[in-house]
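Researcher: We're teaching a course module on how sequence relates to structure. For the next exercise, students receive a sequence and then see the predicted structure as tokens, so they can try to spot secondary structure elements on their own. Here is the exercise chain.
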Amino acid sequence: MYSDLVAALDIGGTKIAGALVDGSGGICLRARRPTPAGEDAETVMGAVAAVLAELGASPLWGGVTAVGIGSAGPVDASAGTVSPVNIPGWRDFPLVERVRRVTGGLPVELVGDGVAMTAAEHWKGAARGHDNALCMVVSTGVGGGLVLGGRLHTGPTGNAGHIGHISVDLDGDPCPCGSRGCVERIASGPHIARRALENGWRPGPGGDTTAAAVAASARAGDPVATASFERAARALAAGIAATATLVEIDIAVIGGGVAGAGDVLFAPLRRSLRDYATLSFVRRLTVAPALTGGDAGLLGAAAAAAPERRDTAAAYTG
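Model: And here is the predicted structure for the students to work with:
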């Protein structure tokens, strides 16, 4: 019934999700633990091991041929290490080696979470059938990944396509990465909300100050909330257009919590792209919402891990 099983891990600052994924992208079994992000390295690894143990207790485990990991970054796929900003206990943590040990020596493939989302969208989502694509996660941060020439382009360390740290405002606010005016500093959910608050937007009776609340106000016609999303859209458009000009992508897929704003984000983004994507070879660039939703990390980790998926779905390479 199940073929070509891969164990997939999606590791972030709030949850560690695991699944057994078959060759058609079906999720056969799930496991999940909260991420003990404030604890030491071994405690966090203990949560990963618990997820793998739950998966390993299934009779399906005998069909698992590889493990794929999509992790918050930075990651270093060449060294097999991770240093997630939102998991301070892990700095240069040898995650690939530790997972290989827990799983009895199975092959392990590590990619960043933005790259995992890209692999998922190219395999099963909005970028399917496109040989050159940029896929983005716009949420608490802004990450991304690239498909070039029909292949997932991860770069030597697994971080290629990290569009969140392209500078689009030379005199902009300092970014924690050390640069200034980064896409993430303008277009991430917290910064959309921060700008709205600084310019006079006030939350409703419930006191919700998230980007989702700003989006709701924008849909209701609030000009300050609308302006905050329009600025975020311009930053995204500038980053997408720069990427398209450099590597000739023909689609940009956007997922993550901020993409849930729908037309509040996508309408000004498409308008702004007309201002930034002006050269003849990028004018036909399209923007689409992601389709794989909350399973993007798991599906992408599975796609990155299994050679047969890379060959049949999109000829992925690492």
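Model: If you want an answer key for the exercise: Residues 38 and 223 are 39 Å apart (CA to CA). The chain has a mean pLDDT of 92.
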